[in-house]
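Predict both folds.
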Amino acid sequence: MSARQWLMLGLAGLMILYGAWFAVEGLWALFTVFALPPLLLLLAALSGSRTAPLWASVLALLWFSHGVMEAWAAPQHRELALIETALALLVIFSASLPGLRARFAKRRERPSVNAE
């Protein structure tokens, strides 16, 4: 799978998670606030947007923080919060992967300089 496909999988997972978490409890405002950004970013990634991975990783930092906070503060939601944290890490990693590959590919292409 490509990094973009992993990104889309992570965004779809977050959207489904928020649907299960907030909509079931009747918290429609939270569902909208949390589920709408991954949906919009997923649609942008599907359309080939070049900035979607950047914005997904920026928002994933917030989702990661929310997941850690919920896992710590609300034991009844710990499983969902840990899933949120894992999906946020998937989004961050998959959004960063093309840049990491490019960065380290350049390092391998450079000729070595021998000190004499």
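Second protein follows, with its predicted structure tokens after the sequence.
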Amino acid sequence: MKENKLVDLSMGFAIKIVKLCENIKGHHSLVNQLERSATSIGANIHEANYAHGKPDFIAKLQIALKECYETEYWLELFVKSEILNRDAAVDLYNQCGTIRRILISSIKTAKENAK
């Protein structure tokens, strides 16, 4: 049932990122990158639930994990570039970290069950 929790968490996270990006003026290419990576997390988790077998399921979760790491990079860049203040980013960092940890655990479990 972790995947359902992941769907909910990633959707909520994506919505917060979309709303954040609506309020950032300028930096269109950077905003686009953040928005694309953050929303891709949930899209890949959602796709994993309709995978064609265990290897496809694992691959989709691994893509979601990579997107999670990319999103963390963009958030850090936004903070260090002073596009976003660190206080505003803390909740987003925490949510992304929670999703990342659940993805890592889910991938590990899926790989063990595939043996």
